[in-house]
Amino acid sequence: MTHLQEFGKVEVTVRATIRPCQKEDLPALEWMGLYTRHRNVIRDAFEAQERGDGLMLLAIAAEFPIAQVWVRFGQHGRKSLAYLWAVRTFHPLQRAGIGRQMMQAAERILARHGIERAELEVDCDNQDVLGFYRGLGWHVVDRGDNDCFLLAKNIALHKPARTTGAAKQQRQADARP
Ligand SMILES: CC(C)(COP(=O)(O)OP(=O)(O)OC[C@H]1O[C@@H](n2cnc3c(N)ncnc32)[C@H](O)[C@@H]1OP(=O)(O)O)[C@@H](O)C(=O)NCCC(=O)NCCS
Q1: From the CB of 68, is ligand 1 less than 6 Å away?
Q2: Is 84 close to ligand 1, i.e. is its CB under 6 Å away?
Q3: Residue 36 — very low, low, confident or very high, per pLDDT cuts 50/70/90?
Q4: Residue ranges of the N-acetyltransferase domain (predicted)?
């Protein structure tokens, strides 16, 4: 008799709110020690968001960030280019559709900010994850820096930003709680 037959199983629905990172979220972003060594990176990303140069998009359930997608605006000095990073779903909740919804939410926000193209990098030793991005319309365009794949996607249905200043102000407004 298998464990499933003997003990049964649990199936749950997790409801999470997608929103920008707030200062109070920063300790929890270390994911119980997993990213403690990246505390400075987390803080720098938050400061970039505060300046309107970035976004830390979180899915929050029970006040815990169960998934993340971070954005850096103005990659390579190009206002219409954004860079996505820290794309991750808390391990026990992976393969439940959360990552896909986070990426779709991030894309909607990029479109609203007049971003025409987005890029991200995948480590060469993490090639399995390419299937996740391909399923969302991303394409490998190059070998990026640091022995990784560079992926890109054109962002559809954007409203052109009125001015640089206005786009930046919009990002700062979006990041406010
Ligand atoms: C990659 C990651 C963010 C995906 O998040 P997720 O919440 O598990 O993704 P979803 O459940 O929405 O997956 C959607 C589909 O993408 C594909 N997919 C997801 N993760 C995959 C993986 N690791 N390898 C291959 N395909 C994957 C699957 O087709 C999946 O659908 P299915 O399993 O129902 O067929 C998550 O696996 C993760 O956090 N991984 C560790 C960190 C990481 O490697 N991040 C990427 C850095 S570039």
Answers
A1: no
A2: no
A3: very high
A4: 16-156
How many angstroms separate the alpha carbon of residue 165 from the centre of ligand 1? 36
DSSP three-state, residue 117:
strand
Phi, psi of 72 (to 5 degrees): -115, 120
Instruction: Give 87's contacts (C-beta < 8 A, 6+ positions apart).
Output: 68, 69, 70, 99, 102, 103, 120
Torsion sign over Cα 35, 110, 134, 66? positive
Cβ of 105 closer than 6 Å to ligand 1, yes or no, is no
Q: Which residue has the CA at smallest separation from atom 9 of ligand 1?
A: 99
Q: Please state, in angstroms and rounded to a whole number, the distance separating the CA atoms of residues 40 and 56.
A: 14
Quote the pLDDT of residue 156: 84
CA of 129 to the centre of ligand 1 (A): 6
If we measure between CA atoms, which residue out of 177, 101, 118 comes closest to residue 152?
118
Tokens of residue 71, six digits: 């954005």
The per-residue pLDDT for range 73-83, each reduced to its tens digit, is 998 889 999 99
Q: Find out whether the beta carbon of 88 lies less than 6 Å from any atom of ligand 1.
A: yes
Ordered domains of the chain (ranges, CATH): 15-168 (3.40.630.30)
CA of 167 to the centre of ligand 1 (A): 31
DSSP, collapsed to helix, strand or coil, labels residue 124 as helix
> Ligand 1 centroid vs 138 CA: distance in angstroms?
13
